[in-house]
Amino acid sequence: MRCVVSFGSSGIRGVFGRDITPELFVEIGSIVGSRYERILLGRDVRTSSHLLSNAFAGGALSSGGVVDDGGVLSTPTVAFGAKDYDCGVVITASHNPPEYNGVKLWNSSGIAFGEQQQKEIEEDLAHHSFERRSWDRIGKMATRHGLALDHAEAIVDSVGTAKLKVVVDCGCGSAGGITPYVLRDMGCRVIALNAQFDGHFPGRSPEPTEQNLEVLRKAVPATGADLGLAHDGDGDRVVAVDEKGAYVGGDKLLLLLAAELVRKAVVVPVDASMAVDEALPGAKVWRTRVGDVYVAQEVQRRKADFGGEPSGTFIFPKWGLFPDGIYAAALIATLAAEEKLSERIARLLTYPSLRTSFQFEPAKRGEVSRALEQTMSSVEGKLTKVDGWRVDSEDGWCLVRISGTEPKVRLQVEARTESRTKEIYESLVSKVKAVLR
């Protein structure tokens, strides 16, 4: 039977027991082990991650791969450590719900596997194409100690000190093993929430949305803290809460960091605000598909100063070509130590926006895509199809795209006034509902 597993915008991902199985990960490990000899392996805290990590390792060893197991590590820690290997592998489903899992793959350069590498693995999976070694030629496995400490020390050396009080919500994910320590070593007084590893994610959902961070938003002003920070399940994303308890999402942090770092060029995906263009009049803004690998590739290609996504993933090319939520958290802390975060955010150029998403049956993905193509082609304005369908007009824009990680249609609208934003949004929601009905 042919395997129909494919890469999304952030690795392979799906529901454990339905889309993601130990048998599949033995095959993925076998393929990776036959292509890349020295492999760094890490995992997040999900209940299925240890099982899948072992399955992957078994497959890699059977193909002659040499595996160093780092245990529970944040995704940026694995990407950071991949420089000493032929590739880095992390078993994770990032911000998805607990029943999901998946795998992300990293080159030794720190950049995620590109489309060609992904295609080769997909083809090998489809044809079960890999070599099993004889008993005397199988690979070896060892434990990699201290990688989180190496990552943490490098961040502190790079970013410097920050004297402030911080509440950090690690969401029971793998960032709990590094971010509180980084902030402490920078000189912060740290209050850690949900810092215990727990794959059931009892504290909150792994996705750090405003709705999921109610406890953090209350804790920051209640404790007299200067800043709140929150990660997703694997630590490649970060969002913030200002000293007043107001949520500061990835879209605003993108603007904040771009204002600090960008001189010549910045790379953002198609769902980033038009405020990026207007806030950086002397810089070139390059837009890509949604997904950190596409942003990273374009950052490298354009020699950009910075790259980031409204989701809260940020790439600092002088540091590495991977999204590092731990490094970003440290950098945001230094900015908040210099000036209150609320005051910095108040100066940012922002426009009203609305977004939502609708689920669909995974088997209908092709049908939904074709129907959306026809619908969005009829919307008045300039249509671009870098990723999904974005229509720009004089006073705003809208975007409809199929998620690369979940069976969802995502909608986003931004305009110069709230009334116009609402008008475009309601029209767009009506059109997408008609498609999915």
Task: Describe what you observe in this structure.
35% of the residues lie in helices and 23% in strands. The protein has 437 residues and is α/β, with parallel strands linked by helices. The strands form 4 sheets. Strands 1-5-4-2-3-6 form a 6-stranded mixed β-sheet, sandwiched between helices. A 5-stranded mixed β-sheet has the order 8-7-9-10-11, with helices on both faces. β19 (396-402) and β20 form a beta hairpin. The protein is globular, with a radius of gyration of 21 Å. The model has no long low-confidence stretch (mean pLDDT 95).
Short description:
With 437 residues, the protein is of the alpha/beta class.
Number of helices: 14
Q: Proportion of β residues?
A: 15-25%
Strand segment count: 20
Distance between the termini: 32 Å
Q: Which percent range fits the helix content? A: 25-40%
Broad structural category: alpha/beta
